[in-house]
Write a structure and sequence with these properties.
By secondary structure, the chain is mainly alpha-helical. It has helices spanning 4-30, 69-77, 92-113, 118-133, 137-148, 155-171, 176-187, 196-210, 217-229, 233-236, 245-253, and strands at 39-41, 53-56, 62-66, 83-85. The strands form two sheets. It has a two-stranded parallel ribbon with strand order 1-4. Strands 2-3 form a two-stranded antiparallel sheet. Strand 2 (53-56) and strand 3 (62-66) form a beta hairpin.
Length: 255
């Protein structure tokens, strides 16, 4: 039959796909022991592309809306883990968000490895409040209520709900508007201690950042200096203001 070679080719492709799926599922199960906090995929790869991978529709026409077989297995098995494609990381905002999510997940894993006492969750949330606010006001409010009312509940349930909310919140992109909201929030801690000139300087930097004239690091540096100068313990422990040194260097190195 003239169709025989095509049918044989289709059968071979199906068999190859099935073997690849079986291998991928086994591999991701093995990766559970690696304590992964992030995954970078290869753009357009039929095995490792995260999005817009070429597939063929029912009429054998190419469409760019698939996911690589191995990438799909990883994403399904680790739905909360930060993941990105290599070429998307050339975008500064996407890269910074990815780095932030990876380091936050690592800190959360460290928190979960400790005995799941409620005070560990409170301490973690306290340090990450402003970081969460910079991504989502709604998540900030919902997570605050969860932590405030969680004592006495099943810690396994509370910790899992918190993790789901945390990873979903940080996956939302931070924006200039959201960051300005956090900056103004932090500025409120100094309203009774700063001189008029210092308040003016702080607001001037916040406004210039809002206008896109300076990077975020400039008002953050000033607020950090004032937090130490006027001893604001809550601000000094905020991850938003004082990220992990390696995390901060990675962000600055690519800014």
């Amino acid at each position: 039959s003239p169709d025989a070679p095509r049918l044989m080719s289709t059968k071979t492709r199906v068999e190859h796909t099935d073997r690849m799926i079986a291998w991928a599922r086994g591999r991701v199960r093995a990766l559970e022991t690696e304590a992964l906090c992030g995954f970078i995929f290869k753009k357009s790869s039929p095995s490792c592309g995260m999005m817009r991978v070429k597939v063929f529709d029912s009429e054998n026409r190419p469409v760019f809306k698939g996911t690589g077989l191995f990438a799909r297995a990883v994403l399904d098995h680790f739905p909360l883990m930060p993941a990105e494609e290599d070429e998307r990381l050339h975008d500064p905002a996407i890269r910074e968000n990815f780095i932030e999510r990876v380091f936050t997940l690592k800190r959360w894993r460290d928190c979960r490895r400790a005995p799941r006492r409620f005070r560990e969750l409170v301490a973690f949330h306290t340090r990450h409040k402003l970081l969460i606010l910079s991504h989502s006001t709604k998540a900030y409010q919902v997570m605050g209520k969860l932590v405030a009312g969680g004592e006495g509940s099943d810690p396994r349930h509370v910790f899992q709900v918190y993790e789901n909310l945390l990873t979903a919140a940080l996956a939302l992109p931070s924006t200039v508007k959201k960051n300005v909201n956090v900056l103004q929030h932090m500025a409120g801690y100094f309203k009774r201690v700063l001189t008029a000139a210092e308040k003016q300087e702080m607001q001037h930097l916040i406004d210039r950042y809002h206008q896109g004239l300076i990077p975020l690091i400039e008002p953050l540096d000033l607020i950090n200096r004032y937090a130490n100068q006027y001893d604001q313990p809550y601000l000094k422990e905020q991850v938003y203001l004082n990220p992990d040194p390696i995390e901060g260097k990675l962000k600055l190195a690519h800014s």
